[in-house]
Structure formats: C-alpha cells, structure tokens
Design a protein that fits this description.
heterodimer, A: 114 residues, mainly beta, seven-stranded mixed sheet, four-stranded antiparallel sheet, B: 112 residues, six-stranded mixed sheet
Chain lengths: 114, 112
C-alpha cells in the first residue's frame, strides 16, 4: 500500500495563478481532508469529505475548492493564488467519519506564492 | 467551538530522563483526544488516542498519555526519552459530531 500520496511535493506560483494539488489514497478510506500547516498556527482544516460526492468546508475554506468524484481521489484547487496561501498542505484520510481522529497523512505539498 | 492549547512551544529533556508534553482542551461534548508526531519534512503520524475507559492510554514508541477530566488535560508522557524522539508533537481533539482540531504543536528536543 502506498497510503496517501500527494503531488506535487513543491510548487511555486505567481499571484493570480491557479493550480490543483492532487491527493490519492489506496486504503479505501471514506473520509478525506485537507489541512494547511503554518508556523506557530498548527494545522487548520480547509475542506473535508465523508464519502464520494460529499464535501464540506472546514475552518479556512476561502480561496480553495474541492471535489470527490471517487473514493480514492480528493484534489484541492487554488482558484487565484495569493501570497497568504503560501503554506505546507497536507492531505489526510481515515476509515470513516467515526475514525476522523485517526488520520493517515500524506508527505505534504509545499506551496510558495510570489 | 472546540480548541486545544499546548502551552509550551518547546520542551528540552536529556536522554534517559522522563518527558512530558502538555495539552489542555475545550470541547462541548465528550472529548476524543489524540496525539500525533511529525518528523522534519514528513506528514503527521498518529501516536495514541483516548475515547473512553482507562485514563492512562498507551501508544506507539513507548509513549503514553493521561486523560484528566477535571483539569481538561491530556498530557503526553514517556518514562525514558530517546534522542530519536526529537520531533514536533501535536495534540488534537474532537467530539462525536465534529472534525479534528489540532493544537499549535510543541517541539521536543532530546539532548544526548
């Protein structure tokens, strides 16, 4: 099992550009989520999904879109990148909503917006 | 709204000594509590959880945590620290109906 795979690992964008961070898991997990990690702020939830076709907003959803067309994939789209979106992004999954606390994390995607 | 406080940005301990990383929480329902560890340039790894039952829970790599309802705390402990335990540790909380909220993290540095 590869677990949770995120691509790309590094990305530099210019302000106003759009891009998609990819996340795939091969554990048949129902629950998937995106967090951003900023120094001194811990991890903050952006969006999450409790199953295919279902998504919901987390604590900091503005400027981001998600979709969940399959169980395996949960891409995060930045619509018009801003310097405030410079961060490390983590995708995480768990067996189901009930096990939301026992997350499996990807290795992260480091995004810099100039 | 639920929240987690990790009052120490950094904890320093000598190898072989016991370590404690502190965590307090606030949640409206019954708390589900978790600890995660993050090594440099890696994703977080689940260490242990408290859902119900015994207040002392044991997890991976010899770590344990003690749930104290009256003090709303869930401190992470290890009897004898290793240099390889040096990492960033996150406490997290949720209740039955909510998503997971993380604390800001505590850097643990174990000196040889």
């Amino acid at each position: 099992n590869a677990g949770v795979t995120q691509t790309p690992k590094f990305q530099v964008l210019k302000t106003g550009q759009s891009m998609t961070l990819q996340c795939a898991q091969d554990m048949n997990h129902e629950y998937m989520s995106w967090y951003r990690q900023d120094p001194g702020m811990g991890l903050r939830l952006i969006h999450y999904s409790v199953g295919a076709g279902i998504t919901d907003q987390g604590e900091v959803p503005n400027g981001y879109n998600v979709s969940r067309s399959t169980t395996e994939d949960f891409p995060l789209r930045l619509l018009s990148a801003a310097p405030s979106q410079t961060s490390v992004y983590f995708c995480a999954s768990s067996r189901s909503w009930e096990f939301t606390g026992e997350l499996f994390f990807g290795e992260g995607s480091r995004l810099t917006v100039l | 709204a639920q929240s987690v406080a990790q009052p120490e940005d950094q904890v320093n301990v000598a190898e072989g000594n016991p370590l404690t990383v502190k965590c307090t929480y606030s949640v409206s329902g019954n708390p589900y509590l978790f600890w995660y560890v993050q090594y440099p340039n890696r994703g977080l790894q689940f260490l242990l959880k408290y859902i119900t039952g015994d207040n002392l829970v044991k997890g991976s790599y010899g770590f344990e945590a003690e749930f104290n309802k009256s003090q709303t705390s869930f401190h992470l402990k290890k009897p004898s620290a290793l240099v390889s335990d040096s990492a960033l540790y996150f406490c997290a909380v949720r209740d039955r109906g909510s998503t997971l909220t993380f604390g800001k993290g505590t850097m643990l540095l174990v000196s040889p």
